[in-house]
């Protein structure tokens, strides 16, 4: 245990010694570190501060200080003599240094005096260099600002010259490129503040130009339309007569170039040597400029809405007619011009801009206008009564549709309108030709044409297809069978066909369709107009019988001539072969019907004239003895009939025969009516014998064959009934009549018992009147009276027993 504690004590003593040695070593190291370290001593001092051996450190520090003091003292002692020698030398040098100082000061003063001008020049040079630096800096700043100022001046100049789109581009470049480079300058702030105002002024100015353009283009749209129609006319080789002098467009194109800046037409468009589109002469820059400006400003929709709204209003004005269009062709032209001018401009805007005018928008605008245009044309054309004007209107409508089609616009409703115009044109022609035919008929003398020379004859044959071998053999003067109205009517029919052909031109019809249209119109002319005029002429009371006969003859030659109209229509339409319309013209039926009516009218007039003569008849039915000659009125009738039938030489034989037979039958019946007149109550044998003389003249007339071609005895049969009746009374052959009654071979087969009774009663009454006047009459008269009564009784028995004959 004691050894252990001894070892422990030794260890503790050793540890104390080690600790003491370590503390000494540590203190010594701290002092050495302070002395030799080139680093800051603050960490070392912090370590001393934090340690517990301050005293030991101070002891070591003092010991080190003392050691250094001893070293310093040894060094000073060693160098002391050298220090003294150095001091002595320094004192000697001091005097030399003072002398040198004086010399330096003197030299310095001399130098200062001589360098004063140099210093002055140096100061001037310094100021000059400073000024130069300022100038260079100023130039640099000005060069930096100069593009901004130049661009601003350029902007103002562009606005003055109304180059608004370029000005807007310049403004955008100024705002986004130039001004940021010089934003530190005060004037740039003013420019930046003024930019919105400039932009607004550009918008207002471009919009003002656009408004001026819209107003100007509205005023000149009719010129644009006229030029467009002329251009299409030249391309399609239509008749140049569509455009006449004095059209609604301006006479001189230079009149369109006005002095103001609102005129959209460029000034170099007057050259006419080469074909130039009218749109090439219009300056659309206000529209493009305004569109670009509003697009750049992000207001394109606003601009499109405004433009379409304004043009929509102008379209309503363009399709509005001016006054009564049907009164003058100029109104139609101006109407077409302003419509075309408007939509041609819109089509150009469609093709030269993107989205300002779309195809859908333009189609809607056109379709809306199209229905109103068609209605306007239909309503105004309905009042037109002039065929020439309507034909000119048709030409304008056709050219109008061609122009529309060339710009891609639908014109179907307007083309359909042409069909209505065709019907109206035909109606106007019909009314016109009614007057033409009526005037021809009124002015005709209804006398066969007499040609004195071959030239006159050839002129007529050129007018109407007519040839006669027999007539050509005769010497001049020659008498043609027809009157003047035949070639005139034929020529007017051809003129009508020409008029229809004119209307059919430029309608894009095939030859067959054109041929069909002309034939239908010609048929209507013949069947309605000419037929109606002929009917009115035939029924005209002032037309004499001879004139009526001439009309009948004229219809024959017109019928023959109108057969050639088929070839005439084919020639002008160019239709040949199978393309010719199969129906043909109805001229044969028309003239045949007219001739039939004329023939009936001839028969009627002939009989009426006979009635006029018969009204002059004055019979004394109480004559005791006949006068021995025929009545004067009968002779007049026969002379009239003979003269009339001589005029029937050019009539067809059957017509003349029918007229003669009708007149004789009518005369026979009228004479029979005289005998049977209820107003005549008394009749003597002398009156019957006198009446027989008139019948004899009629029989002689019938036997003279006034009209050739009758079957033998046919015309005489018209007076047989009268002759048998008169013979029966004059011969007093009652026994034969009664015995042969109803026998085919009877001598008095055509005597009707009723007729015989009527006349016999009138004779009996006449005998009774005589018996009252003369009471003592002869025995023969009494027997005659008894015979009359007996015959009357037998006749009445015949009537009651069976049907009469004759």
UniProtKB/TrEMBL annotation:
<dbReference type="GO" id="GO:0006886">
    <property type="term" value="P:intracellular protein transport"/>
</dbReference>
<dbReference type="InterPro" id="IPR042044">
    <property type="entry name" value="EXOC6PINT-1/Sec15/Tip20_C_dom2"/>
</dbReference>
<dbReference type="GO" id="GO:0090522">
    <property type="term" value="P:vesicle tethering involved in exocytosis"/>
</dbReference>
<dbReference type="GO" id="GO:0005886">
    <property type="term" value="C:plasma membrane"/>
</dbReference>
<dbReference type="InterPro" id="IPR048359">
    <property type="entry name" value="EXOC6_Sec15_N"/>
</dbReference>
<dbReference type="Pfam" id="PF04091">
    <property type="entry name" value="Sec15_C"/>
</dbReference>
<dbReference type="Pfam" id="PF20651">
    <property type="entry name" value="EXOC6_Sec15_N"/>
</dbReference>
<comment type="function">
    <text>Component of the exocyst complex involved in the docking of exocytic vesicles with fusion sites on the plasma membrane.</text>
</comment>
<dbReference type="GO" id="GO:0000145">
    <property type="term" value="C:exocyst"/>
</dbReference>
<feature type="domain" description="Exocyst complex component EXOC6/Sec15 N-terminal">
    <location>
        <begin position="60"/>
        <end position="229"/>
    </location>
</feature>
<keyword id="KW-0175">Coiled coil</keyword>
<dbReference type="InterPro" id="IPR007225">
    <property type="entry name" value="EXOC6/Sec15"/>
</dbReference>
<protein>
    <recommendedName>
        <fullName>Exocyst complex component</fullName>
    </recommendedName>
</protein>
<feature type="domain" description="Exocyst complex subunit EXOC6/Sec15 C-terminal">
    <location>
        <begin position="414"/>
        <end position="762"/>
    </location>
</feature>
<dbReference type="InterPro" id="IPR046361">
    <property type="entry name" value="EXOC6/Sec15_C"/>
</dbReference>
<keyword id="KW-0268">Exocytosis</keyword>
<dbReference type="GO" id="GO:0006893">
    <property type="term" value="P:Golgi to plasma membrane transport"/>
</dbReference>
<keyword id="KW-0813">Transport</keyword>
<comment type="similarity">
    <text>Belongs to the SEC15 family.</text>
</comment>
<dbReference type="InterPro" id="IPR042045">
    <property type="entry name" value="EXOC6/Sec15_C_dom1"/>
</dbReference>
